[in-house]
Specification:
- The chain has about 425 residues and is an alpha/beta fold.
- The chain has 13 helices and 22 strands.
- The strands form 5 sheets. The chain has a 7-stranded mixed beta sheet. A 6-stranded mixed beta sheet has the order 9-3-2-13-22-21. It has a 4-stranded mixed beta sheet with strand order 1-12-11-10.
- The termini are far apart.
- It binds flavin-adenine dinucleotide.
- The site of flavin-adenine dinucleotide has 34 residues, from helix 1, strand 4, strand 10 and helix 9.
């Protein structure tokens, strides 16, 4: 059997679904291939930044996300492990219609997009369908092959979009050169129920709490009115080796850093309640080729310290939808016709990747001198309102201009 559509999308993540929504609204016929998901839930917080909230509002979806089990958070507190508060960061200083974040589990945003897509009869999602290769004629990509119901089928479309995440099989099938950077640290994700009387109680209140030490980070995120999600940094390793360690040792360490977690952590009795999350950075030689393009993590996965994967995937979809409209008008889906998408988006995400790598280096450092420097930066920034506003705007996805040299010197306390 073979299928056809105007656009074929591989991967029903945030990027693929938001692109489908934008194109379906313009009347295009879309098919999406989505492989079987692993059955285990992923315990990790997903911060939806102000810029992503604005994008969701433009799609008429913000209220639907806000109605899910998510937490509205505008304050991030940073502490030195075993020491004092380094700084308090409030999103309320932003001049933006949405000066806050929504934090929930990753499937909430995706669910909102899926629900909205169900109103479009021109969109067909092939669930449990795993991409196996691309269809080509010369240099032109004509679609893809995938296993559906145990059989390999063909999907034909004038343009195929690879939105299948950082380990993109589509990117590999296109033969696009790619460098995947694995970081030296990974994170353990743990979901906890918050005690009902937790408000105003340190890490259990309505703010995000980060604890930074020497080569150690614990972050506590409210994920709804009743849940809290922890991320604890560990050295990157094979996920199986984590399960071989003492769970009690992990819980003791978390309680030593944030004593209010003592009681909620009683809920954690097995490693199955802990997710192992290893961030990667993806850099590819090109995003577009004749008849095909990459988006989201498949094109530019970034270290999650900047927490902008959702917004950047949505922003790809906004720019790509516009470029594709022009391609349809001209009947031209060549790499040259698709290039404006890459030209617009690549510099922005590459700048963000550099910022994220700086954060990963500075926040995670074990070196006593750099730890001292990091703490000094957090303190200085917390006391410099204009600088703080710039940094929060970058984190929120509102500003793309990186910090200037003078701003960096201000953060170090060298310039006024
Ligand atoms: C630890 C961690 C924390 C993070 N925290 C945040 C945060 O707080 N805020 C934020 O904005 N971002 C965060 N991110 C990043 C964010 O999750 C991603 O950037 C975002 O999900 C990318 O969306 P995507 O649609 O490009 O890819 P994905 O969400 O990865 O979606 C890809 C889809 O393709 C499917 N797929 C894969 N291979 C195939 C195949 N062969 N055939 C068919 N389907 C396939 C997958 O099953 C999946 O559904 C975090 C990432 C990590 C690792």
């Amino acid at each position: 059997m073979s299928y056809s559509s105007d656009v074929l999308i591989v991967g029903a993540g945030i990027g693929g679904l938001s692109l489908a929504l934008r194109l379906a609204a313009k009347g295009y016929r879309i098919r999406i291939l989505q492989q079987r998901e692993p059955p285990l839930p992923v315990y990790r917080p997903e911060i939806v930044q102000p810029a992503a909230l604005q994008a969701l509002a433009e799609l008429g979806l913000l209220n639907r996300l806000a109605a899910k089990a998510v937490a509205r958070v505008d304050t991030f507190q940073f502490y030195r492990i075993g020491g004092t508060r380094l700084s308090r960061v409030s999103y309320r200083i932003l001049e933006h219609p949405y000066p806050y974040t929504l934090i929930g589990l990753p499937h909430h945003t995706r669910r909102v997009l899926l629900d909205s897509l169900s109103a479009h009869s021109s969109v067909h999602i092939h669930w449990e369908t795993r991409l196996t290769g691309v269809l080509r004629q010369g240099s032109q990509v004509l679609g893809a092959k995938a296993i559906e119901g145990g059989q390999e089928q063909e999907w034909h479309a004038p343009v195929t979009v690879g939105s299948d995440g950082c380990r993109s099989r589509f990117r590999e099938a296109l033969g696009i050169d790619c460098r995947i950077k694995s970081y030296r640290n990974a994170f353990l994700g743990i979901l906890l129920r918050r005690p009902l009387d937790g408000d105003g109680n340190g890490e259990l209140d309505g703010a995000v709490h980060y604890y930074l030490g020497r080569g150690e980070i614990l972050a506590c995120f409210p994920c709804s009115s009743t849940t809290l999600c922890l991320l604890f940094m560990v050295p990157a390793c094979a996920p199986q080796t984590i399960g071989g360690q003492e769970l009690s040792a992990l819980k003791n360490r978390l309680c030593a850093i944030a004593p209010a977690l003592d009681e909620p952590l009683n809920q954690i009795t097995s490693w199955e309640q802990v997710s192992y999350l290893a961030p990667v950075r993806v850099r590819v030689a090109r995003w577009v080729t004749d008849g095909a393009t990459l988006m989201g993590d498949a094109a530019h996965a970034c270290h999650p310290h900047v927490a902008q994967g959702v917004f950047q995937a949505m922003e790809d979809s906004r720019v790509l939808a516009k470029v594709l409209e022009t391609c349809f008008t001209r009947g031209d889906f060549s790499a040259r016709a698709l290039a404006p998408y890459e030209v617009t988006r690549r510099p922005v995400v590459e700048r963000l990747q550099r910022v994220a790598d700086e954060y990963a280096w500075l926040w995670e450092t074990k070196n006593p001198l750099f730890t001292w420097l990091r703490d000094r930066i957090f303190r200085n920034v917390g006391q410099a309102p204009e600088l703080l506003q710039r940094i929060v705007a970058i984190e929120a996805g509102i500003e793309t201009k990186p910090l200037t040299l003078v701003e960096r010197l201000q953060a170090l306390g060298i310039a006024a």
